[in-house]
Amino acid sequence: MTDIPSAPATGAARGTRSKGALAPTPAQSGTGRTPRRGPADPVRALMHRHRELCERAVDPLEIAAGLEAHGVTDRTAARFRHRDVFSLAEELYARVPRDTETPATARELTPQPAGWALWALLPGVVCALSVEGVRLTAGGVRFVAGAAGAVAFVVALTLTLRRGPLRAGPRRRPAARLCAAWLMAYAIGGDGLLAEAVRGGPDGGWPLDPAAATGLAFAVAPAMWCAHLFSVQAHRKLESSRGLAEFAGRSRPLLLATVALFLVGLAACLAVARLAYQTDEFMAAAALGVLLWLARLLAAHGFAGAASKVLAAAAGTELLALASVFAGRLPGCAALGRPVEAVVQTWGAGAPPAAVCGAAALALLARAAAVLARASAHCDQ
Q1: Closest of 359, 352, 356, 357 to residue 325, by C-alpha
Q2: In the 8-state DSSP scheme, what is residue 313?
Q3: Which runs of consecutive H residues, i.e. helices, occur in the chain?
Q4: What angle do CA 177, 167, 158 make, to 5 degrees?
């Protein structure tokens, strides 16, 4: 039998064969599945990346705060087909399986000690006793009493700050502590030394300011109470907010109101101390108290870096102002001390530290208004 030549393929048949050649079957590709051009579920990769955060979260706000801490913004959320970070966190919270009973039970069984509210009075009591010990002694005994009182105050302040709302993280910053110690020491004896230096002294000792020491020590109590109030109210606003932007708008007025409330408590402590010791300098100690409180508040919420830098700048400026007066006594260097001497002669010895600490406190307040308005600053408090 002769072979009959096949008829030429029709256009439809040719199109079918060419289409089949362009789209290989799973067997021809060797992989068993066709390649995907893009993720059908864009949230899945984010869910796996932050699975630990999603599993331990007890509500979507904790996930939103964690995502914000990792740099996820509303613009990033739009790439995952969500209008903002809060709605993205709600989906992650709904999709990631978790043990819903363990975190809630752990939180219910965790004791919430309130003893720090009474411990907050300890630094003031220790400082008042130390000041009285120094006033009632003389000579070498006075020096020993002052040194023992200073050590006792440092121990009491450390024990107080380790519990309660102003406790900082485990990361230590010794430079910040040294700067805070210098600022506190200057508040006690710096004004007297500066006044004596402008007058050409000191020839021996110089007057100290027990009211500043006692007032600032007792102000630890309102500092901790106001920090606790801010933390509690911030958590309530975080739970009732519908998004991170709304929380930021509600938390900034809360911070300003808390600062004002602390300033009232600080002013009351300083006023009572001034009346007790018959002194009249006030503004420098008030500015220093606000500065130290804002620095500790930022450190307690995980922003110790900014606090350390501002404290170092304030301490360095005070030291430079005091050193410039003594440097002006050197031959040919009289111009170095003239600016500070003019300020002291016009407004008093408390004007330079008041200006320095006030400017530093305003800088920290601006920083706090920016970072403490983030939900991530309160997720671990």
Answers
A1: 352
A2: H
A3: 11-22, 26-29, 42-49, 51-56, 60-69, 74-79, 85-95, 101-109, 116-119, 122-135, 139-161, 174-198, 210-218, 220-240, 244-277, 283-300, 304-327, 334-347, 351-371
A4: 50
Q: Do residues 166 and 296 make contact, with C-beta atoms less than 8 angstroms apart?
A: yes
Exposure string (b/e) for 343-376, b if CB count within 10 Å is 16 or more? bbeeebbbbbbbbbbbbbbebbbebbbeebbbbb
Torsion of CA 244, 307, 287, 210, to 10 degrees: 130
The single residue listed with the structure tokens 């021809």 is: 28
Mean pLDDT over the full length of the chain: 79
Q: Which of 118-131 are b and which e, b meaning 16 or more Cβ less than 10 Å from the residue's Cβ?
A: ebbbbbbebbbebb
What's the CA gap between 244 and 238, in Å, rounded?
A: 8
- C-alpha span between 176 and 310 (Å, rounded): 9
231: amino acid identity, one letter: S
Structural tokens at position 80: 């995952």
What pLDDT, in 10s, does the model give residues 88-131? 776 666 666 654 443 333 333 334 455 777 888 999 999 999 99
**Tens digits of per-residue pLDDT, 74-83?**
677 667 767 6
**For 293-352, how does the pLDDT look when each residue is reduced to its tens digit (9 = 90+)?**
999 999 998 888 889 999 999 999 999 999 999 999 898 888 998 999 999 999 999 999
- The predicted model scores a pTM of 0.75
Please tell me which residue, 212 or 75, carries the higher pLDDT value.
212
Query: What is the C-alpha to C-alpha distance for residues 199 and 187, in angstroms, rounded to an integer?
Result: 19
Write down the residue that tokens 């009493």 correspond to: 145
